[in-house]
Structure formats: C-alpha cells, structure tokens
Amino acid sequence: MPQGVLLIAVSKTKPVALLQEAYQAGQRAFGENYVQELVEKQPQLPTDIDWHFIGHLQSNKVKYIAPFVHWIHGVDSFKLLKEISKQAVKNGRTIQCLLQVHIASEETKFGFSPDELRTEAASFQPADYPGVELSGLMGMASFTEDESQIRSEFKSLKGLFDELKSGEFSALASFNQLSMGMSSDWKIAVNEGSTMIRVGSSIFGSRN
Ligand SMILES: *Cc1c(COP(=O)(O)O)cnc(C)c1O
C-alpha cells in the first residue's frame, strides 16, 4: 500500500470472526454499511477499532452510531451533517465526516452534484456544526469495465477536492481526505490521489 493511503476493510455482511481475524493481523480501520449490523458488531470487537460508516445514512439513525463511530463517509446533505453534529455533541464526541459526491454515470448513487456542493460550500460555517470535523470528500465510480471512464471520474473528484480545499474550505485544516476506490478500482483511485480506499471483497471474499 502506498504511503499515506488508509486501507479500510469493508466487512459488511461478514461474521465477527472474520473481522477478528483481520484485527489479529493488525487491521484497525473497518467499514460497515448498515446501521443495525454495525451496532450489533461493534460491542463484540476490540475498542481500539476505528469504525467507518460508509453506507447511506438516514438522519433518524445517526443516534445509534454516534456513541462510537469515528468516520461517516456518505454525508449527502447539510441537514444530515447537522444531525450528526447534534448527536456528536450529545455524546461528547467529534465525528469525522466526508461529503459524498455523485461522480458516476448511474443515477442510483447518492451524493451531491459538484455544482450543488460548490453552492452549499460557499455558505458553510464550521461553527454551526460543533462535534463534526469536515474531513474531505467521498465518491464511487461507475460500475463499468471501462478503466478510462473510472479514471476520469476519480480525476474529476480529485479536481473538485483540490478546488474546495484551496477555495471554499480553505479555512478548514481538517479537510484533507479523499475516500475513493474499492476492490475493483482502488489502484486507479490511488493513482488519482485517493487517501482512503474502501476494500471489501478482495479482503473477505465475495458477498452473497
Ligand atoms: C461495499 C462497499 C465497498 C467495498 O466494495 P468491494 O467491491 O467489496 O471492495 C466500498 N464502498 C462502499 C460505499 C460500499 O458500499
């Protein structure tokens, strides 16, 4: 793994025993997609794990993971960010948040459009979101074999990240992570500047 890139082991649908094995091998960052599954697994595993919630998060479920989650990758509205802030404060915690950007050609994937995010970022006031550190962006490339398309989608996300980092979010020291890349495309993502890759099936085997 290149220096400075965090490998998140995506363990959704996998039994606790497999996570324990990865933990024994030294893995500390785990990613889960479903609130109930994460809430069930977390107490069964060591307390020094960094939990990354990478799925689609509904506002009314933030309260269940706020007591222990470290990172939330799929923040797709400032309304959701507000709820995360509220629950983080309630628990006396700081939660690192990544804004999800829609970069794929499929319509089904969640996230801000780049223009939407530029507009919202222009009026962003960190003081309105205590307990939250806006830590960067997250995106998923199209589900395609076409490597050049995947590369250009990651390139556009990196471009937007750089633009916001030196522009709208330049006052935010925490804005320094770019979560992109999964089992099939992490090499391309790392080449294009990813700092966090979310890898499931290559580590734990394919899911049913
Ligand atoms: C499931 C999932 C992953 C991991 O996918 P693999 O192809 O198994 O590596 C990464 N990111 C998100 C958002 C996911 O839902």
Low-confidence stretches: none
Largest sheet: 8 strands, parallel
CATH homologous superfamily grouping? Alanine racemase
**In one word, what is the shape?**
globular
Tally of discrete structural domains: 1
Assigned CATH architecture = Alpha-Beta Barrel
Strand content: 15-25%
How many β-strand stretches?
Answer: 8
Which class of secondary structure composition applies to the elements? alpha/beta
Ligand roster: pyridoxal-5'-phosphate
Portion in helices: 25-40%
**Mean pLDDT level:** 96
CATH class bucket? Alpha Beta
Any idea what the radius of gyration is?
Answer: 16 Å
Main sheet strand line-up: 7-6-5-4-3-2-1-8
What is the chain-wise order of helices and strands?
A: EHEHEHEHEHEHEHEH
Q: Could you characterize what this model shows?
A:
With 208 residues, the protein is an alpha/beta fold. It has a single domain, classed as Alanine racemase (TIM Barrel). Helices cover 35% and strands 19% of the residues. The chain contains eight helices and eight strands; from the N terminus they run E-H-E-H-E-H-E-H-E-H-E-H-E-H-E-H. It has helices at residues 16-24, 35-41, 62-65, 78-90, 114-122, 147-166, 186-191, 201-204, and strands spanning 6-10, 29-32, 50-53, 71-75, 95-101, 132-139, 177-179, 196-199. It has an eight-stranded parallel beta sheet with strand order 7-6-5-4-3-2-1-8. It is globular. The protein binds pyridoxal-5'-phosphate. Pyridoxal-5'-phosphate is lined by residues 10, 12, 33, 54-55, 140, 182-184, 198-202.
Tell me briefly what this model is.
This protein is of the alpha/beta class. The chain has helices spanning 16-24, 35-41, 62-65, 78-90, 114-122, 147-166, 186-191, 201-204; strands at 6-10, 29-32, 50-53, 71-75, 95-101, 132-139, 177-179, 196-199. Residues 10, 12, 33, 54-55, 140, 182-184, 198-202 line the site of pyridoxal-5'-phosphate.
